[in-house]
Amino acid sequence: MNILSLEKIDHNNPNFDELRRMILDLENFLNEDIKFNDENWNNNFNIIIDFQDADGSFKLVDSFKIPSDSCIHYCYIPTYICTAILMKAFISDSEAFSSKAKNTLLNGLKRSCAVNLCGQGFNALNGQIKALNIFMKSGLKEFMDLHREFCPEFIEMINNISSKFYKMETEGKFLGPMKESYEKDIIAINEYFTNRNVFVYGTLMSDECNHKYLSNSAYLGQGTIEGYEMYNVGWFPAIIEGGNLIIGELYQVPINDLPAIDHLEGEGTFYLKKCETVKDTEGKTSFAYIYVYLEDVSNLERISAWKEEYVWYVSYGSNMLKERLLCYIQGGPFRGSKYRQPCEDTSLPLLVKPFKVPYDMYFGNTSASWEEGGVSFLDISKPGNAFGVAYLITKKQFEHIVVQENSGRPPKEGYGWYENIINLGMMKGFNVLTITNNNLRPYNTPCDTYSDILHEGIKENWPDISDEDIEDYIYDCIR
Fold it and tell me: HEC string of 319-380?
């Protein structure tokens, strides 16, 4: 993550390259996940707070007295982006906001009302759509639901714009002043405001007894949330705040269906509806509502998931590269190599995390698949710090991968290259497992192709590690 560098440009002598650079940096930071515990993220967050002017704007020039189109681009657009960043953080954790940060957000919201989010002249509607999309990317509808009293004039402005767009769709009037069509944009915005994302982890999931409540909803995929623990209440699960992660499904729910779901969950008495950040299988995050248990769980059984059993599979070899790992799950050859049988469950890993394996890694055996070179093994008698990648997958997927890696048979003492399943402990509530051989294999230098795949896998998951350091690591593993 780059540290932001923001400055006020002289409006009489504008440096447009620098202005565009600052806007791009702000847009990139807007796309970052909220990380209050990350030093670089916090530095950027505080840089934005300190950059606000007394008038509430985050303009990149030292005056509003510039041509109108430039004023939109370099005064109002950065104001919208910076305010949206603060809004996104506020939704994620309002308790982490100091009074100064709250005032900065409030003043930014008020300043964002100055021109009704409109662009200049003939671009008024186009500018309004672009500005709305900036705020929508930051959880606008959740902010309106949860914090509507924070800045009433901002909420009123958004409601008025939303009503206007709804009327345009109802009347089929999508054309701008130059007869350009905004049909796609307006319909997408209207859909955004009439739906809410809901993350479910129990009886509302597919094939469960209460899934009928989501019959009008769109399935968005599997996902995870962090900072909670799950308990078995009997015929349904419950989550409370904790240190683990929760696996579930993400749905886009029509807003008119939410009251029935609230009633089912006993919202406000039995469960509390909260907004959380959900990560999907592609690593993308979005806001969604979850239901958190309000009752005592001291006598309940803690469980890791409701429908399936999941584990972390840690690879320290070629499967560190996700493209390679997916051949074991979804089937197919890897870059021309032999065909791999797919797993019965071909779904993507729910999460992928870099992981340091506390053993020494070495290259051994002679692999026909890798030009007669050696492949990765662990020496579990020798402490180390091997690069690894942890994939959160189902237990059945893990068992399938182990069989594939062990010459088509389950691991068994004295049979196969990877006969031993090693438990590396727990992470976020799930067992962390990897595989190796109980006995040291004959040392053998890896071929260049295998080394290149390891390099790719490490770089994919440890992007801050230099190429030179990766090469040194691979070389140091040769015995």
Answer: HHCHHHHHHHHHCECCCCCCCECCCCCCCCCCEEEEEEEEEEEEEEEEEHHHCCEEEEEEEE
Question: Rounded to two decimals, what is the model's pTM?
Answer: 0.89
Percentages of the chain per state (helix, strand, coil), in multiples of 5 = 40, 25, 35
In 3-state terms, what secondary structure has residue 204?
coil
Query: Is the pLDDT at 144 greater than 90, yes or no?
Result: yes
Tokens 């900036």 belong to residue: 134
Q: Which residue has the tokens 């509003």?
A: 64
Q: Phi then psi for 143, rounded to 5 degrees? A: -60, -40
Strand 301-303 relative to strand 237-254: parallel, antiparallel, unpaired?
A: unpaired
pLDDT of res. 413: 66
Q: How many CB atoms lie within 10 A of CB 263?
A: 10
Instruction: Count CB atoms within 10 A of the CB of residue 362.
Output: 21
Q: Residues 1-26: pLDDT tens digits?
A: 789 999 999 988 989 999 999 999 99
Strand partners of residue 290:
274
Which residues touch 54 (CB under 8 Å, ≥6 apart)? none
Q: Which residues are catalytic?
A: 265
In degrees and rounded to multiples of 5, residue 223 shows phi and psi of -160, 180
